[in-house]
Write a structure and sequence with these properties.
Length: 402
């Protein structure tokens, strides 16, 4: 493999070039023999292309991170050195982004950088929660245990996301099918039916004229409709990136029947699982709340955690600190937190509670799918019925009169 590198000599002069090597570690050793210290390296392909297309270069999936963490945990447990471990992990990774990051992390560790500081160079791959748990593991000498907890955390997160996606895939297929059928009708069917009726100068019902007129409108202005749809999507995407837009969307979503319950349980599961993992790793409660607030999506949950952190700093207990936000937490969640504090088993209770709400989220997603499916079928049936009555009825009447 060819690497483009940047290195420095012992007298401080920089040098860049291309060198053949099996991996970054071998590259560093080869340069060291030439009196150079490797500063930066990347494969030739990565450097030449100049930019990456997101869906081609790809973000690192939760599965990739889970497998990497699990393998790293096993390597640490068996006593394998971290530089060697990351060299193996990098060679086995199929994701280019992860492969490059792991190789660089191994190189940083070999230079004396701590594992947590090496991870901090890649916030796009490893979340703040991940970084702080690794840091806590290094400081307390429990890195092996922390990696095991992280592996479980990622596994549970993947499992929950997978079940939600599986539950919603059928409704998504129905919606996509409905859109495709609608487009086919507008492009190929309605124009021919319209020509047929116009040639006979038939007196058509209002609904028939509306359907045929909508078909003509779409055919004549499809580019404006496409542009308008793109603009609306762009505005919505920009809106959710702003604080006010996020608040509006989160406020509306928490007021939609049934959806609000799913959102509350989903966010509660994320919050409780993250807190459980951080506390088990030995991270202080206030710092755990701060980290978890950055790991949760909903604005109201985020604010509740930040406000709770401020109150705990003043001496309040976690249950009391979160009590003002009891409306956004599912029923019974805060009561279990109180029990955990009273028994001194907060981390263990939170872990059990996280498992319960993760199961609740899965069940809620399944139930949502059950509700959506008949509603979509009813909508599709109504559309087909209106189309049949509005188009086929006048057509039979005209043909009958002929």
């Amino acid at each position: 493999m060819q690497f483009i590198y940047t290195a420095k000599s012992f007298d401080g002069k920089s040098k860049s070039g291309v060198m053949e090597a099996e991996n970054i570690r071998e590259l560093a050793q080869n340069l060291k023999q030439e009196g150079l210290i490797l500063i930066k390296a990347g494969t030739k392909i990565e450097k030449v292309r100049g930019f990456e297309i997101p869906f081609l270069s790809g973000n690192v999936s939760i599965t990739e991170k889970m497998l990497m963490t699990r393998n790293l945990w096993i390597m640490v447990a068996t006593g394998l050195s971290l530089p060697k471990g990351f060299s193996i992990l990098s060679s086995r990774s199929k994701n280019k982004k992860m492969k490059s990051a792991l190789a660089d992390i191994g190189l940083e560790i070999s230079k004396g950088t701590s594992l947590s500081d090496s991870f901090k160079k890649y916030p796009g791959i490893f979340s703040e929660l991940y970084q702080n748990m690794i840091s806590a593991g290094e400081e307390s000498g429990t890195l092996e245990d922390v990696l095991q907890v992280l592996s479980l955390q990622l596994e549970k997160e993947k499992e929950m996301n997978s079940k939600i996606q599986k539950a919603l895939i059928y409704p998504a297929i129905l919606i996509a099918t409905m859109l495709v059928v609608g487009i086919v009708l507008v492009i190929f069917v309605l124009p021919k039916i319209n020509v047929f009726f116009q040639s006979l100068h038939a007196d058509l019902p209002l609904t028939t004229r509306m359907i045929l007129g909508s078909g003509d409108f779409v055919m004549q202005n499809w580019y404006w409709l496409l542009l308008g749809t793109g603009i609306i999507i762009g505005i919505f995407y920009s809106l959710i990136k702003t604080k006010k837009g996020r608040i509006i969307i989160d406020t509306v979503s928490l007021r939609i029947p049934y959806i609000s319950s799913l959102i509350k349980k989903s966010n509660a599961a994320t919050v409780i699982r993250s807190l459980s993992s951080l506390l088990a790793a030995g991270v202080a409660l206030v710092r755990s709340l701060e980290i978890t607030s950055g790991n949760v999506g909903n604005y109201y949950f985020k604010q509740a955690l930040l406000e709770a952190g401020k109150k705990i700093e003043k001496g309040e207990k976690l249950f009391k600190a979160l009590e003002p936000a009891k409306d956004i937490f599912p029923y019974g969640a805060l009561e279990m937190v109180e029990i955990g504090e009273e028994t001194g088993k907060t981390a263990m209770i939170l872990k059990k509670l996280a498992e319960f709400y993760e199961e609740e989220v899965t069940n809620a997603a399944d139930n949502l799918s059950v509700i959506i499916e008949p509603v979509l079928i009813l909508i599709i049936g109504s559309v087909v019925g209106i189309f049949a009555v509005s188009i086929m009825g006048p057509m039979y009447s005209v043909l009958g009169s002929i």
